[in-house]
Task: inverse folding
């Protein structure tokens, strides 16, 4: 398997622009997670999906952030409008998970976002 | 509330030394899972190990070993005979079994192994 795929790997944009990050989870995984990593706050969970349905978005910082998962093999995280404080590395991860089991998450390579 | 504490923010050792990375967690769940991830300079997060709360046996994988002690809520990671390639940031994480597979990460420990 190719692992979790994220695009783009790097994104530089100007404040106020819309940014869309993309993720393809590992085939067969039914959980998908979006994280943000910054020096100040470390790794933060933004939102996660189970079987394409958003389960918990309490980590989404504000209304400028939105995430969708239209099918089992694709998810997007959108920031509109972007601000300099959104600069971070955004990771997508996927995992198997069923019943009482809790399975390891496999991470994509991340998207390094810089908002100027 | 779930919490993971990695008190060592940075550790520096010389190659071939043994090093232990500490992890202390807090949870009210009776069933939970603990994880270690490695983040090398290239930036990706690599899964190393998962441990469930019912299994306190220590685990060894090559030069890596993990010591899980429920009595002290600790899940420490030891690298034996460290190598330069072990230089990375290591994260300990705790799952919220009652909330799907959400992970709470510790702040990470940066390990620098010098030749």
Result:
């Amino acid at each position: 398997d190719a692992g979790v795929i994220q695009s783009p790997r790097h994104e530089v944009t100007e404040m106020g622009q819309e940014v869309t990050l993309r993720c393809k989870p590992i085939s067969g995984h039914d959980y998908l997670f979006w994280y943000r990593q910054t020096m100040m706050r470390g790794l933060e969970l933004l939102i996660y999906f189970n079987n394409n349905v958003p389960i918990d978005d309490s980590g989404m910082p504000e209304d400028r952030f939105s995430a969708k998962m239209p099918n089992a093999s694709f998810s997007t995280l959108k920031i509109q409008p972007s601000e300099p404080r959104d600069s971070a590395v955004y990771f997508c991860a996927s995992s198997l998970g069923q019943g009482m089991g809790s399975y390891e998450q496999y991470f994509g390579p991340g998207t390094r976002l810089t908002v100027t | 509330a779930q919490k993971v504490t990695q008190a060592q923010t940075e550790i520096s050792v010389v190659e071939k030394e043994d090093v232990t990375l500490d992890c202390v967690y807090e949870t009210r769940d009776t069933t939970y899972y603990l994880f270690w991830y490695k983040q090398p300079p290239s930036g990706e997060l690599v899964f190393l190990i998962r441990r469930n709360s019912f299994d306190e046996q220590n685990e060894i994988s090559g030069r890596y070993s993990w010591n899980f002690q429920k009595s002290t809520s600790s899940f420490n990671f030891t690298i034996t005979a460290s190598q330069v390639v072990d230089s990375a940031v290591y994260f300990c994480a705790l799952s919220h079994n009652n909330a799907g597979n959400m992970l709470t990460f510790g702040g990470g420990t940066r390990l620098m192994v010098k030749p």
Remarks:
- Chain B touches chain A at residues 31-33, 35, 37, 43-47, 50, 52, 91, 95, 97, 99-108 (CB under 8 Å).
